[in-house]
Amino acid sequence: MFSWLSASNDRKRQPELFINVVEGLKRIYKSKILPLEEHYLFHEFHSPPLEDADFDAKPMVLLVGQYSTGKTTFIKYLLERDFPGIRIGPEPTTDRFIAVMHNDNEGVIPGNALVVDPKRQFRPLAKFGNAFLNRLQCSQLNSPVLESITIVDTPGILSGEKQRVDRGYEFTGVLEWFAERVDRIVLLFDAHKLDISDEFRRSIEALRGHDDKIRIVLNKADMIDQQQLMRVYGALMWSLGKVLNTPEVARVYIGSFWDQPLRYDYNRKLFEAEEQDLFGDITSLPRNAALRKLNDLIKRARLAKVHAYIISSLRKEMPSVFGKESKKKELIKHLGNI
Fold first, then answer.
1. Domain boundary pick from 258, 285, 312
2. Residue 203 and residue 221 in one domain
3. What is the per-residue pLDDT across 91-119, written as a single tens digit (0 to 9) for each?
4. pLDDT of 2 over the 50 cut
5. pLDDT digit string (tens) for 260-281?
6. Within this chain, do residues 272 and 128 fall inside the same structural domain, yes or no?
7. Which of 44, 190, 194, 322 is the most buried (most CB within 10 A)?
8. What is the pLDDT of residues 202-221, one digit of tens each?
């Protein structure tokens, strides 16, 4: 009796077992998603293929902001010490992307050497050329904070006449690459400098699609009194509303992230509470790293699927022998109708 039930159970596929989540994601990507991406030239249109280092990497925190908003000082405050290659000043001092990583031996790895290391996740950055690689470095130091996360400092975004100077590489393209792979994006604003320059606007637009990763920090808030802080906070929210174009109000962390005494300490308790909230959010990243990798892989799989449908549809419409050029122009003209 019930022999049909046992036969049906035998026909069921046995679920695949994996050692851990990361190993399972690697195997699924290589066996299911990567062949689809290669067949439909996904890497030519979107992002390069993922490597083992992308899955094995520690959670990354990306700091973005205009020059002199305290990005490098924020890292120093977080680590409670200097790191190799640190430069702090009122004018644009950090002119390069610096990945601050853990290592028992302190030192600096230049960008050209960094992108050929198969154990690190930065190999795809080689596509941005030598001009960018000369502005990329890895600072290594022994810090308990860096045992579980990696922090990426970025060049200060320029304003006024300075932003007309060509950097020599695609700055927003590099930001997009990092935004796709990091776990947190911290946007820093100076309480005295809320204007959003054209380059900063383009940089924020490059981060679209990763709104869940963005955290906003209003830094140097101890330099103004309570009444001015209220006005500055309102002005920042108004500026962000025009740039971010999201229906939700973004969470803004208010504080003064450096090791000097507060100038106005009326809001000391507020700053301490905001600091604990922000640092608590950062320390939670290692616990949620596997879920973030799973979420990003699902987004990539959906993008690859849509890309495959579009390419497949275009291929079907193309003639086999004659009239390819005219048909190609027609398909491109009506690409939005697919």
1. 285
2. yes
3. 555 678 999 999 999 999 999 999 999 88
4. no
5. 888 877 888 889 999 999 999 9
6. yes
7. 190
8. 888 888 888 888 999 999 88
Same-domain pairing of 216 and 320 = no
CA–CA gap between residue 18 and residue 24 (Å, rounded): 5
3 in any annotated domain:
no
Q: Cβ contacts of residue 231 below 8 Å, gap of 6+?
A: none
Residue 8 lies in a domain: no
Coil, strand or helix: which one is 227? Answer: helix
Phi, psi of 142, rounded to the nearest 5 degrees: -90, 100
Minimal CA–CA distance to 166: which of 210, 122, 135? 135
pLDDT category at 1 given cuts 50, 70, 90 is very low
Buried b (16+ CB within 10 A) or exposed e, 179-206: bbbbbbbbbbbbbeebebbebbeebbeb
Whether 137 and 268 share a structural domain: yes
Domain with 86, as residue range(s), is 59-161+168-285
Confidence class of residue 238 from pLDDT cuts 50, 70 and 90? confident
pTM of the predicted model as reported, rounded to 2 decimal places: 0.81
CA distance 69 to 138: 22
Distance CA 179, CA 217 (A): 17
Alpha helix (H) residue ranges in the chain: 3-11, 21-28, 34-39, 42-45, 52-56, 71-79, 111-114, 130-133, 171-181, 198-206, 226-244, 268-283, 289-317, 324-333
What backbone torsions phi and psi does residue 143 show, to the nearest 5 degrees? -135, 135
Q: What is the CATH number of the domain that holds 25?
A: 1.10.268.20
Contact status, residue 222 vs residue 265, Cβ threshold 8 Å: yes
